[in-house]
Specification:
Number of strands of chain A: 10
Shape of chain B: globular
Largest sheet of chain B: 12 strands, mixed
Number of strands of chain B: 24
Structural class of chain A: alpha/beta
Oligomer: heterodimer
Strand order of the largest sheet of chain A: 6-7-8-3-9-10
Shape of chain A: globular
Distance between the termini of chain A: 45 Å
Radius of gyration of chain A: 18 Å
């Protein structure tokens, strides 16, 4: 079977009646890492939430397909089982549910109900994934994200990605609020998952994490759509010239006057 | 014999009944003659009969409580006050009438007994039909028997304590229980004896319009330790049944007692129970109280902390679904210095159900350095469901420490989205949030009960979405 392909075509999305995405087009294939960059408020997180099917985000036009399958017709859980994954910017806390219990339930949700994962196999995989992310094994018995530091929450997101082995992973600002060591560890986890069977969409405000993860493509999003795309050098240009540069040179006069 | 009916309701798995299996069933209604007849059948001593008669007078005099749940559908004239299911009590399950044995098999009692219990008492309607205790516990002087037998075999012990923690005058339903009580458990833990594995009682109502009035008395002597567990179920009928128990516990100096309940009555049962313990110096009383079933439950397990350094704990969970009202809580009375109490109440309402936390913390004069901590957490699953928190405090001493915290949460869209984004269906995601919410409760149950509790909650949550 060929690697996965997530195709986003002319996507328009409104949040509480306000248009945020205005014709965004982008395709990610297995083995590729695409960085999506842009100033705050241009629709990067909206893209992430829409791909995963958050009920607050209403698609008004365009399509999203995974290997030709209509993603927008699926409920969030069906999207996950089809192979989509979203590492969230603000992961929720679930009291009383251990991280291990949650992960096992999530893994079993995508298996035949008559064939749940064996405890030993699960534990081994979990230990391995935690080692990659330098996570203490006791972490597995803590309640999901409850009382976690910002860095722990982000690591937990990547841990889930390593365990659930998605086909397309969207990582929403997985580097925000992290110190440099934490960024490095999180990036290690992302690098460890790179393979021809998974495509990644790395949403980030800063170039910093791209020092550890070299993207195949970089897309600059502004005012709800991609204004330019290029190779890894585009991120460096952005870093040295700042987002002002986009406004001044890439956005035609008269556009980009956001509320 | 009647053929076994399988009236399993849509949403209550223990709703089947065994037909009319009783060997003796009273007419409906409550009179002096009913009380005397119960006492006569049991061949009780005169003091107990008089105790009953007095309680009946108190019951008739006391008005219905109007401060709590709606009890207007409860008609005392339509209740059967005594049903004897069998002529004898079994010490092995083979001695129990087949049909009744089958029911308890279906409820998993004999299996649980084989696996992890120190002793089991199984009550069916008015009488205990099976009773057994491990030999080695008996040899240590532990008494675990049904209360009727205890009146005959340990009259001095029973007479010394019966009705001392909860007198008939306490409330209308305590009076009712005292007048018509039948069955229940009597437990005595001798000084310094530790009973490490739980003793269990299981209460099953079978007959329609039945009133079950078991009476439990536990005495934990100085320095002893014990854990008593009870479970309850009943068939689903269209008319009301009444379960009105009284549980009295004395925890002597340095002793520790835990009483765990997982109540799963059918949704036609009024569950009006008085539970109270007295904790002496450095004694610890713990109530772990789970209320899943019933039409209306009014139950406020309480602890009288009468000795210096006594500790009281109540950990409770209430789940109210369609047409159900769980009016539950706890009362802690601090009568000595350095006493501490902790109440953690968790409630879940769904499908239009209603939960009320009603609690009292009383600090008497002179209870220097007493401490109390009350926490009420509520989870509401839909817009039709309701929850109230009514905490009372009475403080007569300023040298005490009191904390109260209450939270109300709804399962949030964000939380569901997060869990569903990992592949869990909406139903599984909701269930996971609910299981997490009650985890502080299930954590305290013996492992086998925790498994059962989780299973019950999962069962309750089925169809909770949509």
């Amino acid at each position: 079977m060929a690697g996965p392909e997530l195709a986003i075509d002319n996507l328009h999305v409104a949040v509480d009646g306000t248009p945020v995405l205005k014709g965004l087009t982008l395709t990610v294939r297995g083995g590729e890492v695409h960085a999506v960059m842009g100033p705050n408020g241009t629709g990067k997180s909206t893209l992430a939430q829409t791909i995963m099917g958050h009920p607050r985000y209403r698609v008004t036009a365009g399509t999203v397909t995974l290997d030709g399958q209509d993603v927008l017709a699926m409920k969030t859980d069906a999207r996950a089982r089809a192979g989509l994954f979203l590492a969230m910017q603000y992961p929720n806390e679930v009291s009383g549910v251990t991280t291990a219990n949650f992960l096992r339930t999530a893994l079993n949700a995508r298996r035949d109900s008559k064939d749940p994962i064996r405890l030993k196999e699960f534990r081994d995989e979990l230990d391995q994934a935690m080692d990659i992310l330098s996570i203490d094994h006791g972490f597995a018995n803590r309640y999901l994200n409850e009382g976690f530091s910002g860095g722990e929450k982000k690591r937990n997101e990547i841990l889930q990605m390593l365990m659930l082995k998605p086909r397309i992973a969207v990582l929403d600002e997985i580097d925000s609020g992290l110190d440099i060591d934490a960024v490095r560890i999180v990036a290690q986890g992302v690098q460890a998952s790179r393979n021809p069977e998974v495509g990644m969409l790395l949403i980030t405000h800063y170039q910093r994490i791209l020092n550890y993860i070299t993207p195949d493509r970089v897309h600059i999003v502004y005012d709800g759509h991609v204004v330019t795309s290029g190779g890894p050098e585009l991120a460096e240009t952005l870093e040295s010239r700042g987002y002002e540069w986009i406004r001044d040179e890439l956005v035609p006069a008269g556009e980009g006057s956001r509320a | 014999m009647a053929t076994r009916q399988q009236l399993v309701s849509d949403d209550y798995e223990y709703g089947f009944n065994d037909g009319d299996v009783g060997v003796l069933k009273f007419q409906k209604g409550l009179t002096r003659e009913v009380v005397d007849e119960i006492s006569r059948i049991k061949q009780e001593p005169a003091w107990m009969r008089d105790f009953r008669r007095h309680a009946l007078d108190v019951f008739f005099k006391k008005p219905m409580p109007h401060w709590g749940a709606d009890l207007s559908a409860l008609d005392f004239e339509k209740i059967v006050y005594y049903v004897k299911p069998s002529d004898r009590q079994g010490k092995t399950w083979d001695e129990v009438p087949q049909q009744i044995k089958d029911t308890f098999e279906r409820l998993g009692i004999p299996e649980a007994e084989r696996k992890f219990l120190a002793g089991v008492s199984a009550q069916y309607d008015s009488e205990v039909v099976y009773h057994n205790i491990h030999k080695d516990l008996e040899e240590q002087g532990i008494i675990f028997t049904d209360t009727d037998t205890a009146v005959r075999e340990y009259p001095d012990l029973v007479r010394e304590y019966f009705g001392t923690v909860i007198p008939s005058e306490d409330n209308k339903f305590a009076a009712l229980n005292t007048a018509v009580w039948s069955g229940g458990s009597f437990v005595y833990l001798p000084k310094g004896v530790h009973c490490r594995i739980p003793l269990q009682a299981y209460f099953r109502i079978n007959s329609e319009n039945m009133g079950q009035f078991e009476r439990t008395l536990i005495v934990a002597d100085e320095g002893s330790f014990g854990h008593y567990v009870e479970g309850c179920t009943a068939p689903s009928y269209n008319s009301e049944s009444l379960h009105s128990a009284v549980v009295e516990i004395l925890v002597k100096e340095g002793a520790r007692m835990r009483y765990t309940t997982v109540q799963n009555w059918a949704s036609n049962v009024f569950n009006l129970v008085t539970k109270r313990a007295v904790a002496e110096k450095n004694a610890t009383m713990e109530w772990v109280d789970g209320n899943i079933g019933s039409k209306v439950t009014m139950k406020y397990p309480s602890v009288y902390l009468v000795g210096e350094g006594a500790r009281g704990m109540v950990l409770s969970i209430a789940v109210a679904g369609k047409g159900q009202h769980q009016d539950t809580g706890s009362k802690m009375y601090h009568y000595a210095p350095h006493t501490t109490s902790t109440i953690l109440s968790k409630s879940i309402s769904k499908h239009g159900g209603k939960t009320t936390y009603r609690g009292l913390v009383h600090m008497a004069k002179g209870v220097e350095a007493a401490k109390s901590n009350v926490k009420c957490d509520t989870l509401i699953l839909d817009e039709q469901s309701k929850s109230d928190t009514i905490p009372y405090t009475e403080v007569s001493d300023s040298r005490v420490e009191m904390e109260h915290e209450a939270t109300v949460t709804k399962v949030s869209e964000e939380q569901l989205f997060y869990l569903m984004s990992r592949g869990l269906s909406e139903e599984d995601a909701t269930r996971m949030v609910v299981m997490g919410f009650i985890e502080p409760f299930t954590r305290e149950l013996p492992m086998e009960f925790a498994v059962e509790m989780n299973r019950l909650i999962k069962f309750e949550m089925e169809g909770a979405i949509g």
